[in-house]
Amino acid sequence: MYTDRILGAAAIAVAAILIAYGYGLEAPFAYEPVGPRAFPLIAASIIAVCGVILLLKSGAAGGSETPMPGRAVLALSGSLLAYAILFQPLGFVISTATLMVPIAMIFGAKWWQGALTGVVLAVSSFMLFDRVLDVVLPVGPLGGLI
């Protein structure tokens, strides 16, 4: 439970930084209805709530404390780095769907569960951002299909 509380405090600190920097984001002209500050503020709110939950979480449910899984953290970091590099050339849908496979496997799922989740999440998120919120996302090779 000690690492949960450290992670919770770190999450709250990250949320505070996101709010501090995100609140000041303004577009020079209004080309999207929600503007550039909406996503960082929403993400910061979700991160802060999760951090508070981790801080307030009761220690009664858990057994012994396990050390931080170093290989999992490195694999997750590598996956996020690959996502950042491939985001523009492959587009949002392909890069997001591809990212979900290693992340799902890191958390114990089968590769096909990660692929299925990734495709559903990527396509539905793209439709939400592109069609509903009018946020421009890179389309990559799927340009004319979506």
Structure characterization notes:
The protein has 146 residues and is an all-alpha fold. The protein has helices spanning 2-22, 38-56, 70-106, 111-132. Helix 1 (2-22) runs antiparallel to helix 2 (38-56) and helix 3 (70-106) crosses helix 4 (111-132). The longest helix is centred in the middle third of the chain and has 37 residues, at 70-106. The protein is flat and about 50 Å long. The relative contact order is 0.12.
* Helix-strand category: mainly alpha
How much helical structure, as a percent, in the residues?
Answer: 55-70%
- Largest sheet at a glance? none
From the N-terminal CA to the C-terminal CA, the straight-line distance is 44 Å
In percent terms, what proportion of residues is strand?
under 5%
- The oligomerization state is single chain
Q: Encode the helix/strand succession as letters.
A: HHHH
On the 0 to 100 scale, the average pLDDT is 80
Rg is 18 Å
How many H/I helical runs?
4
Q: Ranges with pLDDT <50 over ≥5 residues?
A: none
Number of strands: 0
Shape: flat
Top keywords for this entry?
146 residues, mainly alpha
